[in-house]
Amino acid sequence: MVSLDSLDFFLFRVSTDFSSPLAIFIQAQGCLICLLLALGWACASFVRNREINRIKKNMRNGNSFAFLCHDINELEHSNQIDLPRVTVIMPLKGFGEHNLHNWKTQLTSLYGGPLEFLLVVESVEDPAYNAVSKLLADLGGSVDARIIVAGLSSTCSQKIHNQLVGVEAMHRGSKYVLFLDDDVRLHPGSIGALVREMQKNPDIFIQTGYPLDLPSGSLGSYCIYEYHMPCSMGFATGGQTFFLWGGCMMATFLQMHSEDFRKDNCGVVSGLRDGGYSDDMTLAAIAGAHKKLISSPPVAVFPHPLASDLNFGRYWNYLRKQTFVLESYVTRVNQIMNRALFAVHCYLSWSFVAPYCMAVIHVAAALRFNARGNSIEELSYSSIGLNMVWLLVTCTFVSLFSMWNLTRIEVLLCNILSPEAPPLSLASYNWCKVFIAMLVDNCLYPLSAIRSHFSQSINWSGIIYYLKDGKINKIERIPKRQDVAPVFTDLGGKHLYGRKGMPTRGSFLTSLSKCLFQWRQSKRSE
C-alpha cells in the first residue's frame, strides 16, 4: 500500500508539473503541429482531387482515354508522330517480390513517341540482370530496351554511377531523359504527362513525382508510409516545387548532352559524379543554386508497394539512409540548408511526440485520482492536464482524418490513371498502426539523424559509404558469402544476390505496347 501511495504521489506530482505554463506550451505546440499537418494534407488533397474531377469530366464528355491525356485530339496520328524521343534510365539493384510487376508497368508505357529503355546494372552477377533479361525476352522485342553493365562505382553512389553510365549510352536524338527507380509502378500515361508539361513550359529544369506507399502490414512498412506522408505535401502542388524525389525525375536532354558533359553546365555532372551520394538532393541543390524550376504535375503519384516481410530493422536502416542524406551537400549554402532542415525536423519530431508522453501521465494520474477519491486529502491534483489531453485527442483525430482523406484520394487517382491494373484499396490500411507509426517514426528520427551526423557512414545494399566534407570519399563493399542468408534491401525485400526471377505472362498493356512499337517501326520504314 505504501508503494502504491508513493506511485500515486509521483503521478500527481508529475501531472501537476506537466500543467505548468511551459508544459502547456509544449502540449499546445504538439496540437498545433497536428493541425498544420492536417492543413497540409487537406491542401494536397485539393490538388489531387481537382485532377480527378478534371479526368472524370473529360470522360463524361466522351474522352474515354482521359487517363492518358485531357485532349483526345492529342492521340491523333499527326500529333503522335511529332512527339519527342524519350530515354528512360532505370538503375537496377537486386530482385524482389514486386520488381517484375514494376518493370512491366514501366516498359509497357503507352507513350506514342520514340521511347528507349536503358536498364543499368552494376554486374551480370546481380539477380536483376537475369530477371530483366528474361522479361525482355518475353516481351519479344516489342520495346526498345537494352541492358547495360555499368561496373562498380568508385567516386559516387552506385545508383548515381549507373545513372551517369546510362546517360552516356542514351540515344543522341533523345530530347528528354527520365530516371526511374525499379520499385515504382508507372501509369500507362505517366511518361506522356511528364513530356506534355515539359513542352508546355520549357523553363522546367526537372520534373518529379512522389510515391504512394502501400504498407504490407508490418509496423516497419507503416513507419515508412508515415515518414513519406508529410513529405508528400511538397509534391502535391500541381506545379512548382522545391523538392525532388529520386524515384522519378525527368530532365531535358540538353542538360545532359555530351557537350554539356564536357562543359559541365550548372555543375550537374561534377556534382553527381564527384562524391555525390543522393541524386535527388544533389540535383535539387543545383537547381536552387542556379534558380532552375522544379515541377511536379498533379498526376505524378505512383503506387509503391512495400515488401511483405519488411521488418523493423530494415525500416531503421532506411531511416538512417534518409537522415544520412542531410550530411551530404554540394555547396556551402546547401550545407547550411541541410543543417537547418536537420535541426527543424528533429525539433518538430520530438515536439510532436512529447505531448503524447505527457498525456499518458495525465491519464494515469486522473485514473488513480478517481480510484482513490479523497482518501489522501493532502495531495493536490489539477485537471488542466486532462483538458489538454482531450484537446490533443481532438487534434490527433483531425490529423489522422486528413491523412486518411489524402490517401483515399491518391488511391482513387492511381486507380483512374491505371484502369487495367488491379484496383488499390484503402481497406488494407490499419489506422491504429498508422498512429503508432507516427509516434515511433518521430521518436526515432532525431536519434537516427544524430547517429548519421556522428558516424558519417551508412551501409546501403551491402555497400558502406563514408562522407567527408559532404562528399563520398571512401566506398567499401561487403564481400558476398555463401554461408549466410541473402542480403535484402530495405523497401522492396529484394535479394541482392542469389535468387532469380521469372517473368509472368503478358497483359493487355503489353499487347498495346507491342502494337505501338510495330506502328512506329512501320512509320520509320516508310
From TrEMBL:
Keywords: Glycosyltransferase, Membrane, Transferase, Transmembrane, Transmembrane helix. One of its GO terms (cellular component) is membrane. SUPFAM superfamilies: Nucleotide-diphospho-sugar transferases (SSF53448). One of its GO terms (biological process) is glucosylceramide biosynthetic process. It is a multi-pass membrane protein. Pathway: Lipid metabolism; sphingolipid metabolism; Sphingolipid metabolism. InterPro entries: Ceramide_glucosylTrfase, Nucleotide-diphossugar_trans. It is an enzyme of class 2 (transferase). Its EC number is 2.4.1.80. It is found in: Membrane. One of its GO terms (molecular function) is ceramide glucosyltransferase activity. The chain crosses the membrane at residues 20-47, 340-364, 384-406. It comes from the Eukaryota. Belongs to the glycosyltransferase 2 family. This is ceramide glucosyltransferase. It comes from Vigna unguiculata (Cowpea).
